[in-house]
Amino acid sequence: MSFVASCRALAPAFLCQHTDVLLYLTPTAALALLIRILAGSHPFFFLFTVAGTICHELAHYLVGLLTGARPTSLTIIPRRVKTGHWELGSVTLTRVRWYNAAPAALAPFLIITIPFLVAHWRTAPGWHFQPLDLLLAFALAPQFLSFWPSPVDWRIAWRSWPYLLIIAAGAALLAHYHPGLYPFVKA
Which domain holds residue 137? Predict the structure, then answer.
């Protein structure tokens, strides 16, 4: 049995078509795990998380700007908070409403596209490891650590609970008018 056939037996075809991208990102993900472990042991290793912190806070800032949440300040200087852990950065939004809370608070999810786009760029013409790939691994590893919104981000995102009603109503309408759209859901 070939690799492609065995892959398709276990995973969706989409993943099997992009195994080169996943293989390219494996060392980057391992490096991200190592950075995570080391950053918890000594503040010096926060230097390796700076690129991710900048992307995380810029995502909040830019999406806040686009959605009218009025960002007023952005900082990437780490500081200790009252609970004893480190806050690596923050953005202050002065006009958070129900319609812009979730997009602005959950904007870091957009960051995860960066490693995949770079991996696609590097593997599309045929992958040959070069010294640039080692540099890219160090630049992309923090993105794996920074794409998940913080607990504060999640609390802010809950202000957009009306979106849940809109999504549920849209799904109900789709299920009613296009019953073949959800073949695995039994009515």
Answer: 18-181
